[in-house]
Design brief:
The complex is a heterodimer of chains A (about 375) and B (about 475). Chain A has about 375 residues and is of the alpha/beta class. Chain A is about 45% helix and about 10% strand. Chain A folds into 3 domains: about 10-105, no CATH class; about 125-245, Rossmann fold; about 255-380, Rossmann fold (3-Layer(aba) Sandwich), CATH 3.40.50. Chain A is built from 17 helices and 8 strands. In chain B, the strands form 4 sheets. In chain B, strands 15-12-14-13-17-18-16-19 form an 8-stranded antiparallel β-sheet. A 5-stranded antiparallel β-sheet of chain B has the order 5-6-10-8-9. Chain B has a 4-stranded mixed β-sheet with strand order 1-2-4-3. The chains are: A alpha/beta (about 375), B alpha+beta (about 475).
Chain lengths: ~375, ~475
């Protein structure tokens, strides 16, 4: 990363960044959760500057302000200044300083150490990574390497999503294989949390492994992995998110979908949407299903409200509570009258599914991943 | 020791009122709430508290009044002139959790909102639910609060037609400095918030007071017809003396929705010219064309004499000018790649435009600062807001000092040409009090003492003492 913090004083704290581009409501997850100006994007940047200038010392509160940013990129989307694309980098660079100086909060430290030691943020054994998928074909020169990522391998709801994706790919006759327990973390959250050395190490290991195996196309279940691999410096392979392939399969007639009768609101994952501008393909897949009624939430596409799981928060959850972003988001989905909240990211799936339970909305709205909906339409 | 104990007791009392999550005495929060994005000196509060309901605001204020603790209510703190800086410490009450749009009465064209509703949220809500209604949107960032703008006598894009935003108020709910709550206007008698009149109008005890007399927790504001089409024409002149006449003629047609002015030295193509932006609206093209024709006709002889003319706008420029709010005004903070700007908003008679512009050039030259002017006509040319605006670089301490001096001189110039500084910083408010009619100054003082005998509310504002 070439960005430094030399320009951080250019933030005026005007507050455009708190809102989506259509202004409907506050759209910065930590600001929505805490409501103190200190947790807004501008407040955070001013506090970083004050810390670097020695006006404020490091503290638990400052650590929470800095690490509660989930990296959703709404601030950069809405910022009206010429430096808008640097805003997220400033956060990452500030975090990297905290990492280098050993200042990160214990939960974040554990998250990063677990990735470094065990290859996943929970510190679970590597042998558990894909033990549940032992029947899935190992990669052996197939067209696609299906990369699952930590969030699709360890949490139950993430695994469900991975299984659904695998089932759809098998049904469509796609040539693919997985790495099994040899799969490494993609490094997206390590990067977002400022552990740039760890990110580079993981990127290098993954790129080397893919090269050795002759991988030409990587298909990711998680938008976080998709985003991370796009960032790999020496990438000798193409990266696709599974929704892109599903769209292609539908277009080519390889996936024949009949009908489902539910009303669906689609939740754009940040690392697919704002980071990589993939808005159309998941919607086209849903629209190709007969009788499925697709509705939009007030905040969608580039204005989507994050589930709050990015930047490692899906593990250490600094934003929990009734005003936590996932709970706010499921209430917003419910307002549309949707019976299904469709997701394309295993982290969103875990966060929003938990939020449905926390809100007591079981039976009123159900979180389903895109592959699951496609499978419903194939029955 | 006693002070520490007292502070602990106050903290506990605040936690009791709003819950632990919404009270802070942590240094990071105090740092942020000690300053606004302008050049005012920072002063830390002792506590920041975020109430959700009017009852919570009442309890906080009652406690503060009993303990004689200063209270500063804040919206988005975007005045840029230190109006929400807690100069005497105390409790900052951030009202942005109170963000419900309570009602829109379509037939009577008004909205009732809580104090924390942002300009952006109200705009978006109306566009989504009442597309034929709008409120007078100022050029502040959309994160600014509607009520904050009322409290400072702000102006929006309907100012030329309907005046200051504070004159569009149809009702207020206010927490008084003793914690009592009162409702002003038709809402004092019944459920409707349609009008302040025909009562005596106590709303004036709170509008323009920058929180020094009470905390507005709800407001009723007028909404206006939102036309389907909107366009802009830009008339340019080189001679500032022509501007009052151009404004007079354009406003005489009664065809414009909004009339704004601007002048800036950069980029070079704008040097030496003054731009008068005339916004027109209509439900159909014919209406727009009719208005455009009348406005052009009103300026025909100026055009014929080649002293002025309409500018050909590229689609990009037109698109930028038609954005609501216009982001270029916020971007002014990045002109020096320095993250800041301040301005003296002078409310002046339109005829004083040439004088004000001359002063701006002189001040910028004297202090060697970059500058720009933007202005907005209020009423049918009854007055205008003339901004002397200066960007600064937060990393350039010497440049910031020069900017402060330029700002100070701009306030002085405003008073010298017969204008009124709009939302001036507290030190300038005191100068204004000193210069104003003694009878009125005494009246303001008595009103303040009557409402707030313990002197707890926004103590720096409209007070002769800091």
């Amino acid at each position: 990363m070439s960005t430094s913090l030399a320009d951080i004083h250019r933030c005026f704290r005007c507050g455009w960044c708190k809102l989506p581009t259509n202004f409907v409501d506050y759209n910065c997850p930590p600001y929505v959760r805490f409501k103190f100006e200190s947790y807004s994007p501008g407040g955070r940047l001013w506090l970083i500057r004050a810390w670097l200038k020695g006006e404020l010392g490091w503290s638990e509160r400052l650590a929470e302000v800095l690490f509660s940013c989930v990296g959703c990129r709404n601030c950069a989307e809405s910022c009206k200044m010429r430096f808008k694309d640097e805003v997220m980098d400033w956060i990452v660079v500030a975090r990297s300083i905290a990492v280098e100086e050993g200042l990160v909060p214990p939960k974040v430290r554990d998250f990063l150490e677990n990735i470094a030691r065990y290859g996943n943020p929970w510190g679970l054994p590597r042998v558990q990574r894909m033990a549940w998928a032992s029947r899935v074909k190992k990669y052996d020169g197939d067209e696609y390497l299906l990369y699952l990522g930590c969030e699709s391998c360890y949490p139950e709801r993430g695994r469900e999503m991975a299984k659904n994706v695998i089932a759809v790919l098998e049904a469509a006759g796609v040539s693919f294989g997985v790495l099994g327990n040899e799969e490494e973390c993609d490094g997206n959250e390590a990067y977002m949390l400022g552990e740039l050395g760890l990110f580079q190490e993981l990127a290098s290991r993954n790129a080397t492994k893919f090269k050795e195996l002759g991988v030409k196309k990587v298909l990711t279940v998680s938008p976080h992995a998709y985003n991370s691999m796009k960032r790999y410096p020496e990438r000798g392979f193409e990266v696709l998110h599974f929704t892109q392939l599903l769209h292609e399969l539908v277009q080519r007639g390889k996936l024949v979908l009949s009908s489902v009768r539910y009303k669906v609101a689609y939740h754009d994952p940040c690392f697919l949407g704002r980071y990589n501008r993939i808005y159309l393909e998941p919607r086209r897949v849903l629209q190709s299903i007969e009788r499925l009624r697709l509705v939009e939430m007030r905040r969608s596409k580039e204005n989507a409200f994050c589930c709050g799981g990015g930047g490692g928060n899906f593990v250490f959850d600094l934003l929990h509570g009734p005003e936590g972003p996932a709970r706010v988001r499921v209430r917003e989905a419910l307002e549309t009258g949707a019976e299904v909240l469709a997701v394309a990211c295993p982290i969103c799936k875990c966060m929003l599914d938990d939020a449905v339970k926390d809100e007591g909305l079981e039976g009123k709205i159900e979180v389903k991943d895109l592959a699951e909906i496609v499978l419903d339409a194939m029955k | 020791m006693r002070a520490v104990k007292k502070k602990e007791e106050i903290y506990k009392a605040l936690v009791e009122i709003v819950g632990r999550e919404y009270v802070s005495d942590r240094k990071e929060d105090l740092y942020i709430y000690s300053r606004d994005p302008g050049l005012a000196e920072a002063h830390e509060p002792d506590f920041v508290v975020l109430p959700k309901t009017v009852e919570e605001v009442q309890r906080i204020v009652r406690m503060a009044n009993k303990e004689r603790i200063p209270v500063v209510p804040v919206g988005a703190s975007l005045s840029l002139s230190g109006l929400t800086v807690p100069y005497k410490g105390g409790i900052v009450i951030d009202l942005r959790r109170m963000d419900r749009i309570i009602e829109v009465n379509r037939r009577s064209r008004y909205a009732v909102i809580e104090a924390g509703v942002t300009q952006g949220k109200l705009k978006a809500y109306l566009e989504e639910n009442f597309p034929d209604l709008c409120h007078s949107l100022p050029e502040a960032p959309p994160s600014a609060t509607v009520v904050g703008n009322l409290v400072i006598h702000g102006q929006g894009h309907l100012a030329q037609q309907y005046g200051f935003n504070s004159s569009m108020v149809t009702g207020l709910e206010v927490v008084l400095p003793n914690g009592d709550v009162c409702r002003i206007g038709s809402c004092a008698l019944g459920p409707y918030w349609f009008s302040l009149e025909p009562f005596p109008i106590p709303a004036g005890l709170f509008l323009g007071w920058f929180g020094a007399t009470g905390i507005i927790t709800k407001a009723g504001i007028r909404l206006y017809p939102k036309k389907k089409l909107r366009d802009v024409e830009v008339f340019i002149v080189e001679d500032p003396n022509l501007v009052p006449e151009v404004i007079y003629r354009v406003t005489h047609t009664e065809m414009a929705e909004d009339v704004t002015t601007s002048a800036q030295p950069y980029p070079p193509m704008y040097q030496g010219i003054i731009m008068i932006q005339v916004y027109i609206t209509g439900d159909v093209e014919e209406e727009l064309e009719f208005k455009r024709k009348l406005i052009w006709r009103s300026l025909k002889d100026v055009i014929d004499s080649k002293e002025g003319g309409f500018m050909a706008l590229t689609p990009d420029v037109r698109g930028t000018l038609l954005e609501e709010p216009i982001p270029t005004l916020t971007r002014f903070a990045d002109v020096l790649r320095g993250g800041g700007f301040v301005y003296c908003g002078a409310i002046i008679p339109v005829e004083k435009f040439p004088d004000a512009l001359k002063r701006l050039f002189e001040i910028a030259e004297r202090h060697q600062v970059t500058f720009a002017h933007s202005g907005r006509v209020i009423g049918r040319g009854h007055c205008m807001m003339f901004a002397f605006a200066y960007p600064f670089n937060r990393e350039d301490a010497e440049g910031m000092e020069r900017t402060k001096r330029a700002l100070h001189d701009s306030y002085v110039a405003t008073l010298e040409i017969g204008g009124i500084p709009w939302k001036p910083e507290p030190s300038v408010q005191r100068t204004v009090i000193e210069r104003m009619d003694k009878g009125v100054a005494e009246l303001l003082k008595r009103i303040r003492s009557l409402l707030d005998p313990n002197g707890i509310m926004s103590t720096a504002n409209w007070s002769v003492e800091l």
